Amino acid sequence: MNLPDGAAPPGPPAGGPGTAELDVAGCERVLRRNGLPLLLEDHSARRDVFGRSAPFLVVVLLLELTGAVNGGWTWWGNLLAVAGGAVLIAAAYVGLNVLRGRHWSTLPQDVGGPELAFFVLVPAVLPAVFGGEWGAALVTAGGNLLLLGLVWVVVAYGVGSSLWWGLARIVDELGASLVRLVRLLPLLMVFSLVLFYNAEVWQVFSRTGGAAGVILGTFFAGLIVLFVGLRLPTEARNALRAAADGVPGAAALPPLTRSQRFNVAAMIGVSQLLQVLVVSAGMGLFFVALGTLTVTPEVMDLWGIDGQRVLLTFDLSGSPLVVTQTLVRVSVAIATFTGLYYAISVQVDAVYREEFVEGIGEQLREVLATRVRYLGLLGGASASRREAEG
């Protein structure tokens, strides 16, 4: 525990209304809700990451019973194979309990190395046993291993909670994003409109689809994450320092560990990425509407553009309008470029950085106030135990 020996619970409220009435469990709920589970004392990956994810992992395990299915068998043969797979998984889990000295039907209280190895390896056995498909077995094991890594990142660093918090504040995020967007609008609109009404851009994206489109989108999304992440450590320190000034008792808190600082940075990064997403989505919808009105099939014919599949057709005052696959591809591409431009501009402009720190400050003040209360309660409980033992 990070609280110095002998520390007592704080008396007056340390932050927002209701903070002083929180118990330990309530403080932990506030920290988790704000996407900061690593600020909990005695945080454990076995219990707090994989243990909390156990229901999701069980659902995935049940879905992977389809690994026993073989397309060349009859329906009843596949049904028997799935039932046999379920029996095999159940028997393997019973064996795991016996080897660990537990009752055969014991459900895991936490999820450690043996349980994780079970999740990775046992479902991979099904396609090998029931169909001799060793390649599918390796793919299943590799996929499960990657899934565990993703679960660890999302749950350990509170990415899901940060997204949920951000979505709950989507109106505020939209307002903040639009204010910044308006300031960037002159250059941004010139940049975007020049690209949008460029026949070569339409020709490129009319032929870019499938795997190439996914790779291209992933590349630009990675660039956005990279530019947002470059300043996150500095941004987290500045935001915490600014928030601590408004919270009584925050200056006396023990310093955050490296993993806790990374958790704060990840929470701030998710909030920034959400703003980029809001801007990109808004620009994408704008260009779909603009292209539907102005880049008609006749214009595309003049440019030599194949509109690909028609996704939507409607009538506006007697004029037929269509939304084509190529229009959507171009709009998504321009929206992605706009998001990248916005992310870079926000990172390099000091005015935007200051505004963002002020915007995130309210959340961090609540977090710090809760942490003052939380560590105070834990310190008081520890002191009481020592007095009772003495």
Structure description:
Keywords: Membrane, Transmembrane, Transmembrane helix. The chain crosses the membrane at residues 49-69, 75-96, 116-139, 145-166, 178-199, 211-232, 264-290, 326-344. This is Integral membrane protein. This protein is mainly α and 390 residues long. It has two domains: 46-156, no CATH class; 159-386, no CATH class. It is 72% helix and 3% strand. The chain has 15 helices and two strands. The chain has helices at residues 24-33, 45-51, 54-63, 75-99, 113-131, 134-156, 159-168, 170-196, 199-206, 210-230, 232-244, 258-294, 297-303, 325-348, 350-389; strands at 310-316, 319-324. It has a two-stranded antiparallel sheet. Strand 1 (310-316) and strand 2 (319-324) form a beta hairpin. Helix 5 packs antiparallel against helix 6. The longest helix is centred in the C-terminal third of the chain and has 40 residues, at 350-389. It is flat. The chain starts with 23 loop residues before the first helix and ends with a helix. Residues 1-17 have low confidence and may be disordered.
